[in-house]
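Sharing in case it's useful to others searching the archive later.

Someone asked me privately for the predicted structure of Helix-turn-helix transcriptional regulator, so I'm posting the question and my answer publicly. Question first, with the sequence:
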Amino acid sequence: MAQYSTELDGVLVALADPTRRDVVRRLGRGPSSVGDLAGGFPMTLPSFMKHLRVLETTGLISTAKHGRVRTCTLRPGRLALVDDWLAEQRRIWEGRTDRLEQLLTDPTEERR
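And my answer, the predicted structure tokens:
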């Protein structure tokens, strides 16, 4: 866990912004040009590009320029960092709630 903490921190920070989460959601349907993506957001193109740079820096998306069109593509493997972390947290908390349930339902368990 500790070895990829910096990467996980970057991905979580990137996903903390609703605009960037919406971009990730849209790219989940397939690659899209920057112009098409930016059209749905009430902000200037330079402001929108800052969001794309954050996503690209953290590895959540990749971009490629073909002529005058820059196309963005989601890199779902980076989302696996968050998924792995959440699965680990879920496993820990499920173990704790299972032990609590056992203590509450089995009075002999308390004596051990």
